[in-house]
Amino acid sequence: MIGILAFIVVFGVLVTVHELGHMIVAKRSGIMCPEFAIGMGPKLFSYKYNDTQYTLRLLPIGGYVRMAAEEMEVNPLNSGMRIQLKVNDRNEITHIILDDKHNFTHIEEVEVIESDIKDEMTVKVLRLHDNEEISYSIAHEAYFVQNSELERIAPRSARFESKSVFARFMTLFAGPAMNFVLAFVLFTLLFYINGKPSEEPVVGVVADDTPAEEAGLEEGDRLLSINGTGVDSWDHMSQIIQNEGESELDIVVQNDGEERVLEMTPVVDTTELPDGETMERLIIGIGAANEHGAVSPLWWGVQETYEMGTMIFHLVVDMFISIFEGTFSFDMLNGPVGIYKVTEDVAAQGLMTLINFTAILSVNLGIMNLLPIPALDGGRILFVLYEGIFRKPLNKKVEINIQLIGVLFVLMVMILVTWNDIKTFFL
């Protein structure tokens, strides 16, 4: 149960932050956002505020912001349909009433002849009380009314494609950017709570029942040399231990100006990786001392986010290279099932470990969404950049076909990755 809750919370936070980034910048750019959804599938809860329907859906595997756009506008009006209209003093439609569940007064009964809510923003009707044909313009602020609910009709000026190249670029980029911001916040929080392991070869923790404890190594000891090799940093110390193998080590340490020589033999530590493989390394059972500070954790958070992003980017590049080299394996990827299993294992290690894992996932989500794949933010950004460079949008039919190919590609990859995860973790 803890694993399931942890997965829902972690995935929910990542998706919410990502989609919130899109929506905040979209609204600041004047783009209407009819729906902000967390999860997919059937609606569990909804709340409307400022023309945006906030919904929570059944399946915790994604989310979306539905922005007003020409291809997203669904016209519920059909020729011959009888509806009611409310107009303003400029004879513009403010409300198109689709049923009788309303309290509006001073309305007109009409029959739809034709309508255009994408380009012309007009509705041509037959007015029933005098059989006169009239063409109405739709007001800048107008609504469909059905089941006592109002859904605003997006004016052309509030649609995604009507905005500048820069505004659209920033709207699309804001989602991944917010994932990097979330990672920075979480890493910084951890540094404020736990501090940062020092690069200096100073002992901060001595584990029980380890070679270090048995040899008398103490907190605060500074390692000067191992088997005659001077120790420059914590990483250097670890490397020396690996290079020396399972042989006895003569370690010179210093504490309060006093030097001691300790003898110990490292042991093999085996770690099981999420994909079922194991990793072995030699340890003596010590942890680094932690540094703390009032301002330093902010800089450490930036560094950790950058370093984690760089590492994940290199892994992604290596993965694509492996496709062309013929060495690619789906074991390199984790889908929702794999992420759930890893989250379950991480949650068992405690809250701090789970927060760190969430930060890493957030960086990963940000980078993956920037890949130039049409179904992802990176692919849509490419279309916007194309328009910015060539001063004209890509042919709409070509763009739709490329988007469709991208969606099919992502779905195929997700199915294959999910099946591979099921085989790895459950079969």
TrEMBL record:
Record CDD domains:
cpPDZ_EcRseP-like, S2P-M50_PDZ_RseP-like
* Membrane topology note: Single-pass membrane protein; Multi-pass membrane protein
Q: GO terms for biological process?
A: proteolysis
InterPro entries recorded for this chain? PDZ, PDZ_6, PDZ_sf, Pept_M50_Zn, Peptidase_M50
* Entry cofactors: Zn(2+)
The record lists the membrane-crossing segments as 169-193, 312-330, 350-371, 400-419
**MF-aspect GO terms:** metal ion binding; metalloendopeptidase activity
* Localization terms from the record: Cell membrane; Membrane
The Gene Ontology CC terms held by the record are: membrane
What's its EC?
3.4.24.-
* Family the entry assigns: Belongs to the peptidase M50B family.
> What is this protein's record name?
Zinc metalloprotease
